[in-house]
Write a structure and sequence with these properties.
The structure is a single chain. The protein has 75 residues and is an alpha+beta fold. It has a single domain, classed as 2-Layer Sandwich (Double Stranded RNA Binding Domain). Helix content is 33%, strand content 21%. A 3-stranded antiparallel beta sheet has the order 1-2-3, covered by helices on one side. Strand 2 and strand 3 form a beta hairpin.
Length: 75
Amino acid sequence: MKTIQNFTAIIEKEDDMYVSLCPELDVASQGDTVEEAKANLQEAIELLFEHASKEEIASRLKGDVFITNLQIAVG
């Protein structure tokens, strides 16, 4: 039986593409749109779980990831 796990997707624009990253697994992908980059990242993560050994997944899997904003005085 499959279980559902939640992972973080960080998506940023680079030139004319969008790059997506899952920091918990150190998996990245890209796409022409935000939606495509997200879908491609999801597929890459699913493929990792389908084909990688339990040892590789364990070595990649990081603990909790926290994303927050910082206010920095510049200039």
